[in-house]
Amino acid sequence: MTKKIVVTGGTGFIGSRLVNRLAANGENVHALVRASSDLAPLQECLDRITLVYGDVTDLSSLFSAFEGAEEVYHCAGITYMGDRKNPLLQRINVDGTSHVLEACRKAGVRRVVHVSSITAVGISGPNRKFDEESPWNFDMIDLEYARTKHAAEKLVAAEVRKGMDCVIVVPAFVFGAGDINFNAGRIIKDVYKRKMPFYPMGGICVVDVEIVVDCLVTAMKKGRKGERYIVGGDNVSYRDLTQTIMQVTGVHQRALPMPMWGAHVISFFLKFSTFSKERHKISKLFNMTMFNVASRFLYFDSSKAQRELGMRYEPFEESIRRTFEFYRERRMLT
User: In whole angstroms, how far apart are CA 91 and each of 38, 76, 152, 174?
Assistant: First the structure.
């Protein structure tokens, strides 16, 4: 029997694409899912995988799931840019990671690949690219998501110092087919529906989900113990990102740059009933926390992943096109 592989967060965007890839490769993959999880992202491979029910916030539910596992990909996590879910961010991203590591230790798992976030690396600024050695500085913004992802990485690093074999993979802003919950894909939908009359003045590092999956699989095979690998691609301004989405979708809207002070003004007026009816005309991405992050530059250097994991490069517009076609074929843009 082939080795047992467990993937936490098996129905999430990255986790489901990883499970599908491992199943296609004939691996003995066990996807950790909650009883309430929507299994639609795994529909293509349900007959070739084993579902194991558990929750990273419940340590006792993980012991039997990880029993006999040689490899664990820890993809479970919650991405939320705001302050309304701070306790949940702590429970899933930090406590959940601690539980996974403890269960892996008890089960004698050979290797763990932990999926992190570029918010655990930092804010680069417009004229430089951060790498794996850059000092974390996201605490300049009050963003609980960034704090929890940074704290989770520290937990993994502590386990490595105790002897556990772990590798950290840090995906950038991930587009791609399969993003049914509109994570990064929300910006494609909102540009398509002309809900982006303005754009933030920052920039982001963009990568396709299949490149992330490539690197996760390779990191498990030959990533160096205790190392972290940033998996990104093109570093693009939000202006260039929205213009490229318009070119791919064929939908054009005049969009203006919006500084933070302007965003504060709009946010203020949207609170009044006279203007609240206009809210549906503006992207759901518009909240002050998200806009603050998007007004910064999160540019990254992925050369380490290129050297050591063989990370491939493709122009970001290819990923945008692939994601848009995925949505259009399934009529998800209405």
Answer: 21, 11, 11, 23
Please state the φ and ψ torsions of residue 228, each to the nearest 5 degrees: -120, 145
CA distance 92 to 97: 7
pLDDT tens profile 232-277? 999 999 999 999 999 999 999 888 888 777 777 877 766 664 545 5
CB-based contact 29:65 (threshold 8 Å):
no
pLDDT band of 278, cuts 50, 70, 90: low
Phi, psi for 210 (deg, rounded to 5): -70, -30
CA distance 19 to 7: 7
Query: Domains in the chain and their CATH numbers?
Result: 4-175+205-233+297-313 (3.40.50.720)
Token representation of residue 21: 């890839």
**Beta-sheet strands, E only, within the chain:** 4-8, 28-33, 50-53, 69-74, 111-115, 166-171, 173-175, 198-200, 203-208, 228-231, 235-237, 256-258, 297-298
**Nearest C-alpha neighbor of 242 from the set 296, 211, 207, 204:** 204
Query: Is 267 in contact with 290 (CB distance < 8 Å)?
Result: no
C-alpha 204/C-alpha 133 separation (Å) is: 19
Q: Which two tokens stand for residue 249?
A: 């979708």
Q: What is the pLDDT of residues 11-24, one digit of tens each?
A: 999 999 999 999 99
Query: Which are the contacts of 110, defined by CB distance < 8 A and separation ≥ 6?
Result: 70, 71, 165
CA distance 267 to 276: 10
User: How many whole angstroms separate alpha carbon 130 and alpha carbon 289?
Assistant: 22
The two three-digit tokens of residue 113, written as one number: 């690949």
pTM for this prediction: 0.94
Contact 168, 153 (CB under 8 A): yes
Neighbour count for residue 264 (Cβ, 10 Å): 13
Q: What is the rounded CA–CA span in Å between residue 25 and residue 30?
A: 14
